[in-house]
């Protein structure tokens, strides 16, 4: 990262993290030695806040407790939509049912989902992600959620706008074949898959997503980008 | 019901109830004055038990506590499938995640769902049904559940076999346009929709299910059937 920053290239961190505010997320990465600040992060919750404000929507929130501060400036009285994030232990039957009742009570239910991930890995094993609960509510109400966060096109476009660059000028580096690589490419960007984290060998035979390049780690990705300047 | 029984016609109760054993279900109906016994009831849990035994499957159960006794004779050690019912408050994040982990750990995940209902009504309001959680697990594991219970063809075929009649000789009476009427018709039976319970006026414009007749209540359905004998 320091080499990228030293080269004068613009940099933006695009995360689907919805279990914590950007502040917490950044502190964690700083603790791991990364040079990163909150205003360099594009994340689903602030993207959702922009959508809510633009459309005059007041959300019923089904999110992780630690994410709630991101919605501090949003009016949540008398809700006319539901925002769902990776609520983890907050996905009790009572809470999911409450979100369902808010939706089914609307003439035209609006469900905004902070990502569509199936599951993720934690130290104690795999955990169901927001996408599974999004699907449950979609089916129960016979609706389609609007996804903010990767791989939504709008999410990548926000990140590009924040940097002031065109898709053709940008490269996405990520470990997730669909959410990172596929999403960025659909937006007109090039995308490099890193063979770490979520990467699995079978990704290289993915039926419809083909990265522009593979690298074994982040340092290799930086080499590749700096070489091609 | 007494008029049907007096006429010599065979009768079978087909329920998607998965929050209680047939014993409890029957006691409730007996309490309401119905002449009904356990061996007249076709329900998803015993149908699932037959499937489990036939295929040597040992289920991880994600069901309502009150339904567990229906699986008393089933081996649940070292599970090689998941059975999901309307678990209601048992649909905690931890429990749904545990079912997910069992499935994702299998080479070819087998998910058996005791119905595919979206929601139902209780005195305190609408409640999410098993179908929503089935969809969550289907999405997370990228699989298709096998549904036992209405509207599955196999379920109606079991009921017919238990009575020893052909589909052409049978009439389904129900309030649910898709699960009762649609399911029975797909099996070759005729079906009458009762304008009570789950019935909604918009059912009469359903895009693909058209009952053979409508009646305003159960007594009218009995009139209709006895008239046409």
What is this entry, summarized?
Two copies of one chain form a homodimer. Chain A has 229 residues and is of the alpha/beta class. Chain A is 36% helix and 17% strand.
The total count of strands of chain A amounts to 11
**Sheet with the most strands: spatial strand order of chain A:** 3-4-5-8
The total tally of domains of chain A equals: 2
Structural class of chain A: alpha/beta
Content of β-strand of chain A: 15-25%
Report the top-level CATH class of the largest domain in chain A: Alpha Beta
How many helices of chain A in DSSP terms? 8
Oligomer classification: homodimer
Say what the CATH topology of the largest domain in chain A is: Rossmann fold
Greatest interface (CB-CB under 8 A), with counts per chain? A-B, 31 and 31 residues
Q: What's the end-to-end separation of chain A, in Å?
A: 16 Å
Low-confidence stretches of chain A: none
One letter per element, helices H and strands E, the order of chain A comes to: HEHEHEEHEEEHEHEHEEH
Biggest pleated-sheet summary of chain A:
4 strands, parallel
- The dominant shape of chain A is globular
Mean residue pLDDT of chain A: 94
CATH architecture of the largest domain in chain A: 3-Layer(aba) Sandwich
Percent range of helical residues of chain A: 25-40%
